[in-house]
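Our working data are protein records whose layout never changes between entries. The record below serves as our worked example for the rest of this section:
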Amino acid sequence: MYEAKSKLLIIEDDLDLADMLTAYFRVCGYEVFTVNSGEDGIVAYQTSHPNLIILDIFLPDMDGFEVARRLRENRRTADIPIIFMTDKRERIDRLQGLDLVVDGYITKPFDIQELRLRVRNVLRRAGQDSLNNPVTGLPDGPLVDERLEECLQKPIWAILIVSLKNLEAFRETYGFVASDDVLRAVSLMLYNAIHETGYAEDFLGHLGPADFVLITRQESSTGLQEHIRSHLERSLEYFYPIKDRQKSTKLGKRLILKIDELRSNNGPFTSIEVLKLSLLRKMQ
């Protein structure tokens, strides 16, 4: 399995937490290295060459942001995936404002299962052999580009862009496990829509983490949109816990489904870059 081949470097000054994480991830099949300061973490990377770093923000010698900055500035360590651990939720705003490539963060106290899933998903995204989305299993990246290239060779086609808006706000409230369940449910509903309304050669993949692309024939596009709206929109409230379903309808950042369409006659599309730019504009 992928997890058994992966090395984790944990940089955490809380010795009890560090020991617990080390024991847990070793049981999960990872090779684990643990240090208790930022400087030791930078040195440990050079000797252990981990696939991912779990990095506490509050360290005795330097904060985790400085550790990440120094790793990102070094060509050999610039691409290492990093998951931050933080005690204060307001630190999330600072994370988003930093000019650092952050692969994830988790706020203490955290669910160890959630951290395990986060580690697994980040490692899968970072793996060069993975061409599918780690959450839904749908084609991603190069596989989607291949199908978009094929569109450029055909005279008539339609592309539906299905976006789930405000998933980040949902994730902040209910956690990564719940938001991943939402994405999997949406992908299954889209697949069923194709099976019931579309054609066997229709293609479903990811344009973004919460954005799906559906390539179909123009004659089936309208029916697919109607099917997706009728089934998905009425299901959004059921993604919330029962106690929050009524409350969620009053929230400004509840889950919202957005569907748009791009057709071959909306062009000309002279290259895949032009086509993808048009799709990205539809996603906004």
